[in-house]
Amino acid sequence: MEVLLHRSVEDIIHGYEGLISADAVERQRKRRRFSYGLSGVMGQYRQVLRSSNLHGAIFDKIIFLDVPALSPERINTFLQETIAYESNEKYAWCTGMFLTRLIKRSYDAGNNEFHLDTKAISKPLHRIGQQLKGKKKKRIGITVDGPLGDMCAWFSEYLDIKAESIGEHCGEYGWRLSIEAEAIGGQCCEYAKHSAIHATSIGNFCGLYGKHLEIAAKLIGRHCGWHAKESTFRTTRRRTLERFMEHIAKEKGNHIYLVHRNGSEEEIQEERWS
Predict the structure, then answer these.
(1) What is the pTM of this model?
(2) How many CA atoms lie within 13 A of 177 on its CB side?
(3) CA 129 to CA 146: how far, in whole Å?
(4) Which distant-in-sequence residues (6+ apart) come within 8 Å of 268 by Cβ?
(5) Taking the CB of the first residue and of the last residue of the chain, which one, N or C, has fewer CB atoms within 10 A?
């Protein structure tokens, strides 16, 4: 009986160790799959850097790449790995477009909130979010710790972008966009519709030919809201108010508001605003 009991205990212990070993093996397999996946993506990325021509159709080349669906956290990990290639002249353009492709695949797999840390990158990334199309009930959100470059959110839909600063031509031809930054470059949201732009300062020609826009800024460049229709413009600064009235047409259904320190809004009704 003692022998049988002893053997039974040994069998139990052996079986328990087997279960632990199997679990450990599975974890190792998962780690290997992840490492292989990320290293595979880096291989695709390096190939793009080597083969792309800055003056060619590099966006078309990248946008159809068969990349894996990484989690939002892994996408940011990938971004940090690319910093080693900053010296490449195509880095800012190719990296921005490659990230956009990864975000698209991840969104299709069920993710919709993405966080990118660009503080350690010396070259602001261009074309982040270009042609990304979210859905009304599931928007795509991209929050960036650091600056972004030019041509972000081009031809995009149902996309929210927040960054410390954004370059020129952001949100052109966009639909249902939300763009927030401390500073945004010129020609933001040209020809865009049903979109909102919030910044401390915005460059020249913001909202040109836009429709159903909401633009709020303390400082603006020249010709903001020129040819815009049925849009709303807000500022806390009277000099900016004057600039709004220079180029925004009241007869096209636009509205201008001065926001006071207490948060109340005063709609401008002056006759000289034509």
Answers:
(1) 0.84
(2) 35
(3) 15
(4) 241, 245, 256, 257, 258
(5) N
